[in-house]
Amino acid sequence: MELTPQLIASLIDGKVEGDGNVRLTGFAKIEEAAPGYVTFIANPKYSHYIYETEASAVLVSDDFVTERPVSPVLIRVKDPYVALADLMNAMESTRPKPQGIEQPCFIAEGVVVPDDAYIGAFAYIGKGVHLGKGVKVYPQSYIGENVTIGDGSVIRAGVRIYQDCVIGKGCIIHSGAVIGADGFGFAPRPDGTYEKIPQIGNVVIDDDVEIGANTTVDRATFGSTRIGKGTKLDNLIQVAHNVEIGTGNVFAAQVGVAGSTKIGDFNQVGGQVGFAGHIHVGNMNQFGAQSGIPNNVGDGNRLIGYPAVGLRQFAKTQVYLKRLGELFKNTK
């Protein structure tokens, strides 16, 4: 698709300032963009680049004010970041999608593959699997017995989905993810060894969930480990057995959630945050990177540190820590 500022504005409900017919060939960060590229400014700290960039067009907010003339065409929108996402999704939708069944692959007898689905080479589809319309299973993926995958979901190359798990509609599971491996359950014996506890539950992933590369979601001991609608998990995340994560959460990379913890809706979790097991976390919380959450958390908190405390308390503590050396000297 050949882009122009005017065409972009029509796709994302924007207004053009400048030549609306400039030919655009791709996307780039504002500090790296060359002529022909479109970029954006969503964070005010990047505003100075508008006077330096070689980009041909820049998405800016409706209230963005220039201090002097700029060379790129401006496309004004309500929210540049959201507009960029909408634009890139529109571009992505024009790319041809794979369809059909590649060989060699294994599809168990009785499994119905919809006409618009895709099964990549060396994929394994077990007995009793149900595939929704438009499902894409990329090469070398394993779909275990009795798994259900909803309409339009995408299973990227090398994903492993164990038996009895349920994947909703419109989900994306990235390469290397493992859904439904055994939870970490072992009973200590008197002689110091451990007896494995069979994990006979499953994993249920609701609609529009995205799971990053090499993330693991363990099956429940019994019942279900659950990931709620619209939740987004980054790469390298561990979700343990019988965890329940609600709607609309976002987890950055390397988060760990221990067994049987319940997390509510619309929480924002920074990288490397660790949740202890058997705790309850409410809704609309924000957790700073590397925080440790050992206890229950209510709603609407902004926490950081270990054990996690409020931002103001954390900032005060950091000031005191920096002055410890001086305080020790003064007490001698």
For this entry, give a set of tags:
332 residues; alpha/beta; Udp-n-acetylmuramoylalanyl-d-glutamate--2,6- Diaminopimelate Ligase, Chain: A, domain 1; UDP N-Acetylglucosamine Acyltransferase, domain 1; 2 domains; 10-stranded parallel β-sheet; 37 strands; 13% helix
How would you explain this protein's 3D organization?
The protein has 332 residues and is an alpha/beta fold. The protein has two domains: 5-93, Udp-n-acetylmuramoylalanyl-d-glutamate--2,6- Diaminopimelate Ligase, Chain: A, domain 1, CATH 3.40.1390.10; 159-332, UDP N-Acetylglucosamine Acyltransferase, domain 1 (3 Solenoid), CATH 2.160.10. The protein contains four helices and 37 strands. The protein has a twelve-stranded mixed beta sheet. Strands 7-9-12-15-18-23-26-29-32-35 form a ten-stranded parallel beta sheet, with no helix packed on it. The protein has an eight-stranded parallel beta sheet with strand order 10-13-16-21-24-27-30-33, with no helix packed on it. A hairpin with a 5-residue loop joins strand 19 and strand 20. The longest helix has 14 residues, at 80-93. The radius of gyration is 25 Å and the shape is flat. The protein starts with a helix and ends with a helix. The model has no long low-confidence stretch (mean pLDDT 95).
